[in-house]
Amino acid sequence: MVRMGELATAAKGGAVLVSIGLGSCIGLALLDRAGGVAGLAHVMLPATPSDGDGGTPGKFGDTAVPALLAALVRQGARPSRLEAVLVGGARMFSIGSSMDIGARNDEAARAALAAHRIPVRAADTRGSTGRTIRVDPSSGTVTVKAAGGKAARLYPAA
Amino acid sequence: MSTYSELQLDALGELANIGSGTAATALSSMIGLPVDVSVPNALALPLADAVEAAGPPEQYVTAVALPVVGDLEGIVLMIFSPENARRLCEVLGVEADTEMGRSALSEIGNIVGASYLGALGATIGQTIEPGPPEAATDMLGALVSTILAASADTSDVALLLDSALRVEGGNDATISFILVPSTQSVRGLLDLLGLQ
Fold it and tell me: What is the biggest distance separating any 2 CA atoms in chain A, rounded to whole angstroms?
């Protein structure tokens, strides 16, 4: 289970990485399918605040990408083979409507990925429903289940 | 300050107690059923733990969120299990899972929230009120994490004042009532209580 603010990696034969109940949070998945490793970060906020309260690396969009990248490389992933999939970033309530955190998380994740030249291959983001993401390093697939719906493979396209 | 002493948590729990007692009475008047209130918990938890403390993240619930405005900032979240949502809607004569049903639950949230916050405010000599309520039905984890992301700002620890309101006569009667104050508001609160 990759809970809010956390990140984890797994290799072929290893655990399926899951984040349950992504609201405004983004489940940021990175896969090296040929290498058989994958990672998942449960991103809560777009950017590390200026007063420098670090928090866990998976918490902020700007730090989650380099942290996940480093962890995957340690497990043998090749940066050039990495692909990203984004899930979440919904707007569950309009409270706090001046800052749509979900949308900002989505943008921050994409910006960080672009800066590291990692392509986003698929995304199921925005809207107003909660989602659950499952990343399976053995099959190199990402599955999404939206609240009230059935699980469906998001990447590679079914 | 990202951790709170036992003394501070006890004091905050006391405040939650006062708020929930009033809230239970208000809810009871509104629905015409006896409502009991459990001893509230003031929990200071790392964010991921705070999400889990509210219940299983995959559980489907209806939640009503109210922004807290005035001298205290934060968000109140009232969580109804599907069973509870249905019962309360029934009591109010509307169908659950409809626009009217969500509206009715929002109204409950509004009245209960207003009495909770009013009692809290009166106790510490501050003006605290709820803003407009909003209902959503979704996975518990998605709803709670969204609220925490919106109010826990830069802190890694969320303070939850969690009360359980029990509506008599049903199987699954508990309504969770969670107040998440902003980190800054907690400092202000503790200051007022002389416990900084």
Answer: 44
User: Is the ipTM, as predicted for this complex, more than 0.90?
Assistant: yes
Instruction: Classify domain A7-155 by CATH number.
Output: 3.30.1330.200
Q: What is the pLDDT of residues A105-117, one digit of tens each?
A: 999 999 999 999 9
A39 DSSP β-pair partners:
A9, A30
Tokens of B143: 């709803």
Q: What is the pTM of this model?
A: 0.92
DSSP B94-162: --TTSHHHHHHHHHHHHHHHHHHHHHHHHHHT--EEE---EEEEEEHHHHHHHHHHHHSTT-SEEEEEE
Q: Is A20 an active-site residue?
A: no
B145–A22 CB contact, under 8 Å: yes
**Please, what are the domains in chain B?**
6-192 (3.40.1550.10)
Residue B67, chain A, CB below 8 Å: the answer is: yes
Q: In chain B, what is the greatest distance between 2 CA atoms, to the nearest angstrom?
A: 47
Query: What's the rounded Cα separation, in Å, for the pair B67 and B27?
Result: 19
